[in-house]
Write a structure and sequence with these properties.
single chain; 192 residues; mainly beta; Jelly Rolls; six-stranded antiparallel β-sheet; 14 strands
């Protein structure tokens, strides 16, 4: 079931704020599985926005009851390019629950054996290209991968610690070298 992810608005933040402020929320992790409406919250972006030549697409697919986003394409470093990504705006009004702060993100992924990056942008960035990054390897079987926030490195600025309350964008990225991307994500959880 292909779905167009190129909508200009990507307001997962509204969804997260509604969930976060709900009276019925438990102390468990904040889980955001993909579903039939996920195209409303996610956006496909490539290096073509800055003159690169990478190309790709994101499709929303289904395996039984499970929906997942699949990022496929060709990453090219020509013309100072080198990325394709699936991203969404994210905002936590309060990253603390019962005295605990969010500690990281957990993803259920599979792919073609390549390494991918998770980029997190914050509202304290020094300039446009400033973000936090961690890598994952997406193998052919579905695997839950935990990425503690303290494993994320700030890309182009000082190495300050990633603070969940400052998160503004989350992205799954095929990045930095010539290769074929094929990575799928079914669930994203922020955990305490």
């Amino acid at each position: 079931m292909p779905l167009n992810f190129s909508k200009l608005s990507c307001f997962l933040s509204l969804f997260i704020m509604i969930i976060f402020n709900s009276k019925s929320i438990a102390a468990e992790d904040l889980s955001f599985p993909f579903n039939a409406d996920s195209g409303n919250y996610w956006q496909y972006v490539s290096d073509r926005v800055m003159g690169g030549v990478s190309d790709g697409q994101v499709t929303l697919e289904q395996d039984g009851e499970m929906y997942y986003a699949r990022l496929t394409g060709n990453v090219s470093t020509r013309n100072n390019g080198g990325f394709i990504q699936l991203r969404s705006g994210v905002s936590f009004e309060n990253s603390e629950k019962d005295g605990k702060n969010l500690q990281g993100v957990r993803l259920n992924v599979r792919g073609n054996g390549e390494t991918y990056e998770i980029h997190i942008t914050t509202n304290d960035r020094a300039y446009r290209g400033d973000y936090y990054s961690a890598t994952i390897k997406a193998d052919s079987d579905w695997t839950m991968i935990d990425l503690p926030f303290n494993k994320f490195k700030r890309k182009r600025s000082n190495n300050s610690k990633l603070d969940a309350k400052n998160i503004t964008r989350f992205a799954i990225v095929a990045y930095g070298r010539e290769y074929v991307s094929d990575v799928s994500v079914s669930t994203i959880e922020f955990y305490y």
